[in-house]
């Protein structure tokens, strides 16, 4: 038999984690319990069983002096034990097994072997959360541990490794007694974006659960929100709009709710993603109370941390009428009832303070245009048309964008009408509508299949072509 191989250190791996000082005994003792939201997936479990069914050529590794016979003996001893025997073995030799598994993951590259080792680490952590402490202890001999071998594997495209390593890293980050290093967060976030955009719905569902776990770590929330200009949040919103599973919707909303506890996020999320009208639509279409509850819990956090930024968009998105309908139902969830009552009270009080133009601007920003009184009031337009040109013509540009993107005939008709009124009482706005393509789009809409859209497009074009004193 070949002589025992010398231990292989993963310290030289090409990964982005920096060499922090080893964890102190006090920090190790403070390692928190794993979050309850760590991923559960029958799809992942099936892949794991397939991995575990494949033989690993341990004898070949020994003959090649890549690992030692003692290493193989430790692995086989663990595999041959009963479930309780495995727990007892780890309780007695957790540090030795942690060192072994990290060393092998850093040294071996064959796909089936790496899959096997990831499955083994994942299984151990699922059944024995305290094993995380043993993994963290390895930083005392190498500060890049325990993350380095797993971060290296984020570069793999193979499905099982991509899922297993994301689950293990999220576990370690969530149980670490230290804040997450920015470069480590960047690596896992970048990996998560790829998983969230995958064509396989099972992989997307798994990725949402990983995001849910990561966001249980408070110091990851703002970096998560800021990552690549909001790419992760955009990915979550896209999942919310394309996945029909109530459970997946609930988990995405749970992620957003976790983010909403951060005041800076609560101030920016509506402005950056126009998320309030999207979630109002999700709640209206939901057939599970838990989905509605998460939407309203998210909204309640927004008005608690950032009422100025979020109250008007909620009013403009017609949230209050929806809450009134909800309150008439026999709701089973007491938390949902509390949220409905709190939001109703806040929005009703806000309505009493808001001007007509505040309500109008909230409606325009929400994209949910309808024939509310302000649109058809000549006095409103005489007093407020110029305000559509404020802040770099923000509201006028939103209306113009609605002409290009909306499909609802009422939205198109109202947007065309409002832009006609805008240039009637603010003739300088004609140049803007020409520049942004709204004039051309209005002329196209004169041939729209809907009679109301055709009429308001025609009237708006007439106003654009006329001199202001002729109107």
Concise account of the structure shown:
By secondary structure, the chain is mainly α. The chain has 27 helices and no strands.
Radius of gyration: 29 Å
CATH class of the domain at 36-175: Mainly Alpha
Number of helices: 27
Instruction: Say which CATH homologous superfamily of the domain at 36-175 is assigned.
Output: Leucine-rich Repeat Variant
Descriptive notes:
There is one protein chain. With 471 residues, the protein is mainly α. Among the domains are: 36-175, Leucine-rich Repeat Variant; 377-470, Serine Threonine Protein Phosphatase 5, Tetratricopeptide repeat. 69% of the residues lie in helices and 0% in strands. The chain has 27 helices and no strands. It has helices at 25-29, 42-52, 58-63, 69-80, 83-107, 111-127, 131-137, 148-153, 159-175, 182-196, 201-214, 221-226, 231-242, 246-259, 263-273, 275-285, 289-305, 307-316, 319-327, 334-353, 356-366, 378-384, 390-405, 409-425, 429-435, 438-445, 451-465. Helix 18 crosses helix 20 and helix 24 packs parallel to helix 27. The protein is elongated and about 90 Å long. It starts with 24 loop residues before the first helix and ends in a 6-residue tail after the last helix. Residues 1-20 and 30-37 have low confidence and may be disordered. Residues 354-469 form the ATPase V1 complex subunit H C-terminal domain. It holds the Pfam family V-ATPase_H_C. This is V-type proton ATPase subunit H. V-ATPase is a heteromultimeric enzyme made up of two complexes: the ATP-hydrolytic V1 complex and the proton translocation V0 complex. Keywords: Hydrogen ion transport, Ion transport, Transport.
């Amino acid at each position: 038999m070949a002589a025992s191989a010398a231990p292989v250190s993963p310290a030289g791996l090409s990964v982005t984690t920096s060499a922090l000082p080893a964890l102190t005994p006090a920090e190790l003792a403070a390692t928190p319990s794993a979050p309850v939201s760590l991923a559960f997936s029958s799809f992942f479990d099936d892949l794991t069983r397939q991995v575990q069914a494949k033989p690993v050529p341990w004898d070949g590794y020994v003959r090649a002096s890549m690992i030692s016979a003692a290493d193989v003996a430790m692995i086989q001893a663990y595999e041959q034990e009963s479930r309780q025997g495995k727990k007892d073995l780890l309780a007695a030799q957790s540090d030795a097994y942690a060192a072994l598994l990290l060393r092998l993951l850093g040294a071996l590259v064959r796909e089936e072997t790496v899959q096997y080792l990831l499955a083994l680490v994942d299984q151990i952590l699922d059944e024995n959360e305290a094993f995380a402490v043993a993994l963290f202890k390895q930083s005392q001999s190498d500060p890049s541990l325990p993350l380095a071998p797993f971060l290296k594997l984020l570069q793999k495209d193979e499905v099982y490794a991509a899922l297993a390593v994301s689950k293990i890293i999220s576990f370690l980050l969530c149980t670490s007694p230290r804040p997450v290093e920015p470069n480590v967060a960047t690596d896992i976030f970048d990996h998560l974006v790829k998983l969230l955009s995958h064509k396989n719905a099972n992989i997307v569902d798994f990725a949402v659960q990983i995001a849910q776990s990561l966001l249980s770590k408070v110091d990851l929330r703002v970096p998560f929100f800021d990552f690549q200009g909001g790419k992760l949040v955009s990915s979550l919103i896209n999942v919310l709009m394309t996945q029909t599973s109530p459970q997946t919707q609930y988990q995405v909303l749970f992620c957003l709710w976790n983010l909403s506890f951060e005041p800076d996020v609560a101030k920016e999320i509506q402005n950056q993603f126009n998320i309030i009208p999207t979630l109002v639509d999700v709640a209206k279409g939901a057939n599970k109370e838990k989905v509605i509850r998460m939407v309203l819990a998210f909204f309640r956090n927004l008005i608690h941390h950032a009422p100025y930024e979020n109250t008007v968009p909620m009013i403009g998105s017609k949230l209050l009428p929806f809450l009134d309908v909800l309150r008439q139902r026999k709701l089973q969830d007491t938390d949902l009832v509390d949220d409905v009552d709190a939001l109703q009270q806040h929005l009703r009080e806000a309505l009493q303070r808001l001007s007509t133009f505040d309500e109008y601007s909230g409606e325009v920003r929400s994209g949910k245009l309808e024939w509310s009184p302000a649109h058809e009031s000549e006095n409103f337009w005489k007093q407020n048309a110029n305000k559509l040109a404020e802040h770099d013509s923000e509201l006028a540009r939103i209306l113009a964008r609605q002409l290009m993107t909306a499909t609802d005939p009422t939205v198109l008709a109202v947007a065309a009408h409002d832009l006609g009124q805008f240039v009637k009482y603010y003739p300088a706005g004609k140049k803007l509508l020409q520049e942004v393509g709204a004039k051309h789009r209005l002329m196209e809409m004169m041939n729209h299949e809907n009679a109301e859209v055709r009429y308001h497009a025609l009237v708006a074009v007439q106003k654009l072509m006329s001199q202001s004193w002729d109107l």
